[in-house]
Amino acid sequence: MTKKPEEPKDIKKDKKKVIGVFFKERVITESTNEARELFNQSRYGVLLEEGKVQLSLVEALYLLEKGKLDIVDARNAKLSFESFLKKAQKLEEELWTRYCVFKDIRNRGYIVKTALKFGAEFRVYDRGVKPGEDHARWIVYPVKESSTLTWHDFSAKNRVAHSTKKRLMICIVDEENDVTYYEVKWLRP
Fold first, then answer.
1. Which of 31, 59, 91 represents a domain boundary (last residue)?
2. What is the spatial distance between Cα 131 and Cα 129, in angstroms, rounded to a whole number?
3. What is the pLDDT of residues 37-59, one digit of tens each?
4. How high is the pLDDT of residue 10?
5. How many domains does the chain have?
6. CA-closest candidate to residue 108, choices 168, 161, 181
7. CA dihedral 168, 169, 172, 178 (to 10 degrees)
8. Domain of 54?
9. Residue 80 backbone phi and psi in degrees, to 5
10. Per residue in 51-81, pLDDT tens?
11. Which of 66, 91, 116 finishes a domain?
């Protein structure tokens, strides 16, 4: 019995990594089946006309950490998780707080999309529901444990959730990057 030579450790056998280019405030993937599969199966990013996928910074950071994406800069230099995080935080000050919430919700099996048109950070779909098939159940506001939220801010967030027929979820990220969830519902006495 002869032993097969080992492949280099940086080569993945199972699936080819998707390559994304860090461009301004987003990451644009190459036009490959693997990139489109990220969108089709897990609803990461937005599918562009030319078959590329546009990822938000938080989505790209998550996929980079999961080993599904390699990110290069404009000079085609590969970025590590730490270097990409550092560059992305210059563009989005609260990126780490948002990332902690995004990561925790995705790891729980939910689909998370941006919710800018609702005045929130994210919208979250029930497990098994893909955007376009049904509506999101929650709109999500990630906040640091050390930050303050006025009653006026809280009321405004709750009104947006109620008017869009979604539940409000406040996600508090503590100093250890653990997330605590508070769902707010309207009650009629």
1. 91
2. 7
3. 999 888 999 999 899 999 999 99
4. 43
5. 2
6. 181
7. 180
8. 18-91
9. -80, 170
10. 999 999 999 999 999 999 999 998 999 999 9
11. 91
